[in-house]
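re: that complex we talked abt at group meeting.

here r the seqs, copy pasted straight from the sheet so there may be weird spacing, ignore it
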Amino acid sequence: MAKQFPTFPTEYAGIIAGFLIYRYGDRLHEYLKSFGAGVLIGSIGQLDIVKGLIPKAGSSSSSQREGKEQQALTVGDLARVESERTVVRGVL
Amino acid sequence: MAVQVPKAVVKLPLILNEKSSGVTLIDSVANVESEIVRFQVPKKVGIAVRQGDRFAIYLRTSAPADITAGTLRMYLMDANKATRFKVLEGPIKAFMGGSSAGAFTVDDRTKQFYMPSGFSRETDEWLIITFEGADVADDAQTRLILEGVQFVQL
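got the structure back, here u go
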């Protein structure tokens, strides 16, 4: 029977690898301590929750959204905004 | 070299009436909710009716005689008339502004009807007014006014 290895989500692979290098890397070379910490930090960046905070290439950034707002409004857009206004009339 | 004319949008008052471009008047059908006014927003135009804008309509029979009983409704529809939203519904008298005996009187503020909320329509969309009553409204006798603002793209 083939030996079964536990499976992990890919998001955690970097963390596990980083931890192993951080914990045992000094046995190979003392400089791997800092290298392992670097991997750990890098792996955190792979977490979905962190990814959500970092805009992907090609997605709309805040500056792009601002640029969109600067585009010319259509007559329909202008009419919609105007319809939100209220005409105040004086009382005779 | 060709001179390129810059595009611009002009904001103008909208005073929609029975003679406005794009307005079609139709006779009503007795005791059936039937369209009496159709207005399709022209190309490159957006209209806005705001809360507090004035609306008045005056219907008469072909006799002519004033129509003072019946229900008036106003609908907003998309360009294909696939969806519609009712924005006004009430007795015709509420929207007559005191008009009578052939005089479309809309200058008495105490009798005027003001839109309770705003709405907008853009190119090709429809504004429809229907009437349901025992009397038949004659299209040639229909008078109306709807104030607002229009945006015209040059």
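couple things i noticed - The mean pLDDT of chain B is 92. Residues 9-153 of chain B form a domain with the Jelly Rolls fold (CATH 2.60.120.1170).
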